[in-house]
Write a structure and sequence with these properties.
Layout: H1 15-18, E1 24-27, E2 30-32, E3 35-37, E4 42-43, E5 47-48, E6 53-55, E7 58-61, E8 66-69, H2 77-86, E9 94-96, H3 102-105, H4 108-114, E10 119-122, H5 124-134, E11 141-143, E12 149-151, E13 156-161, E14 171-175, E15 180-182, H6 201-216, H7 220-229, E16 237-238, H8 249-260, E17 265-272, H9 278-292, E18 296-301, H10 307-314, E19 317-324, E20 326-327, E21 330-331, H11 333-345, E22 351-358, H12 364-371, E23 378-379, E24 383-386, H13 391-411
Parallel strand pairs: 8-9, 9-10, 10-11, 15-16, 17-18, 17-19, 19-22, 22-23, 22-24
Antiparallel strand pairs: 1-2, 2-7, 3-6, 4-5, 7-8, 12-13, 13-14, 14-15, 20-21
Helix pairs in contact: 6-8, 6-10, 9-13
The structure holds MU-OXO-diiron.
Length: 420
């Protein structure tokens, strides 16, 4: 490091904006130096963040070298730099980039300005991304391969290349002597909390499940492999790059094992929109029909719902029934958007159906079916009604509920009590 760390403009910022997270040493020589984002309510201009988030960055001081593991979102660079200043860090030897996405890598260029001696340590794919995304010069990198290690003096970093959680270049860093796994996004949660460690597991479970549903669910196959690869690693602490640190790793590892398993629950998710009440009446009747049969029904009115709640429900439901009126011969645009999301998230759902209404005709069913290309599902006969639902339409909904019941009895968890 040349000279003292100065965060340009920091002194001019109001205190509330500057001091968002204090430095915490949570094991000897290992510090949490990241930032809490209490106010952020949307990620990627898409994902709701009801509880804010954090961008965790960790400083590891060995006897000879100092490493910074991941950085923070550029909007919070002042917090990271201020934290390093508070610790009196005069030199950083390595900046470990576990992931190229900007909420973790975006402050690397600023760190390199302040600590020009630092090398960015990452894999080849991540290096290629960082050169393109952040214009970091090639000569700033130290490229590692799976299993490579870096000694800091009494602290050894081991790198585990773990692609597709959730980008192709993702990797984990394991601190051998302290048995800490730094998996970046993987196993994390969007939760702003002043507690460094998980204190309320029920709360963190919800946030981590939401995070898994929104970001990790499409990558279940990769996750399965990576969980298997780290199975025999001795892990005392998991320190992700979003949300609290796990002092009891089994808590989050067992939750992930459950979410990625092939098990589904006796639940039907019903994303729906209604314009003049016909589809609404059908959804009401159908929800009641499912409840009578002992099936959990989760309707989501797409004009009001938080998409994260819908994504969470998709993690383990056995069935999805999409409900839409007909607009300009197709599904309502809000249904198109939700169906696109369902298809992109690739849940382990086994059964799908479509219900809804029309005035004079259309291709709503064909269009919705055509959007579900990634799902490996059996599609039940849709129930589509002209105008307002009549007795025979309601009977068709009963038949659909019966069919779902029959299938769920065979494939959902055995402890479910079905109403006969
Ligand atoms: Fe938290 Fe993929 O970034």
């Amino acid at each position: 490091m040349t000279g003292s760390v100065q965060c340009v403009g920091l002194e001019k910022m109001p205190l509330k904006r500057r001091i968002k997270m204090s430095v915490k040493e949570f094991k000897h020589g290992i510090y949490s130096v990241g930032a809490i984002d209490w106010d952020r309510r949307l990620f990627d201009e898409l994902i709701p963040l009801p509880d804010g988030t954090s961008y965790n960055s960790y400083l590891v001081k060995g006897k000879k070298k100092v490493a910074l593991i991941d950085t923070v979102d550029p909007t919070k660079e002042y917090t990271l730099i201020n934290n390093l200043e508070k610790l009196g860090i005069k030199s950083i030897d390595y900046v470990i980039a576990n992931h190229g996405e900007q909420d973790h890598s975006g402050t690397i260029p600023r760190i390199l300005e302040l600590y020009p001696e630092a090398k960015v340590v990452t894999n080849q794919k991540c290096k290629d991304l960082l050169v393109e995304l952040l214009l970091i010069p090639e000569e700033k990198f130290l490229v590692i391969k799976n299993g490579d290690t870096l000694s800091l003096g009494g602290k050894t970093l081991e790198f585990i290349i773990a692609p597709w959680v959730h980008w192709p270049e993702t990797m984990f860093t394991y601190l051998r002597e302290d048995k800490i796994l730094f998996p970046c996004d993987f196993l994390g949660s969007h939760l702003a909390s002043s507690d460094l460690f998980v204190t309320d597991e029920a709360k963190v479970y919800e946030s981590a499940k939401r995070y898994y549903a929104e970001i990790m669910m499409p990558f279940r196959t990769s996750i399965k492999k990576h969980l298997e690869r780290i199975k025999d690693l001795e892990i005392d602490i998991i320190a992700p790059s979003h949300g609290p640190v796990y002092p009891r790793p089994e808590f989050i590892l067992s939750a992930y094992r459950d979410w990625i398993s092939e098990e589904v629950k006796n639940e039907v998710i019903i994303p729906y929109v209604s314009m003049h009440g016909s589809t609404d009446k059908m959804v009401d009747y159908f929800v009641d029909a499912l409840i009578k049969r002992g099936i959990t029904a989760k309707p989501f009115n797409l004009t009001k719902t938080d998409l994260g709640e819908l994504a969470m429900a998709l993690v383990d439901a056995a069935s999805i029934v999409i409900a839409s009126p007909t607009v300009l011969v197709g599904p309502h645009p809000a249904v198109v958007s939700a169906t696109y999301l369902v298809n992109a998230l690739r849940p382990k759902t086994r059964f799908v159906s479509i219900i809804g209404s029309y005035g004079w005709g259309g291709k709503m069913v064909e269009q919705i079916k055509g959007m579900l290309t990634t799902l490996k599902v059996e599609i039940f006969e849709p129930v589509i009604v002209k105008g307002y639902p009549k007795d025979e339409d309601l009977k068709a909904l009963d038949r659909l509920a019966d069919e779902i019941l029959k299938k769920h009895k065979h494939i959902t968890k055995k402890e479910v009590n079905y109403i006969k």
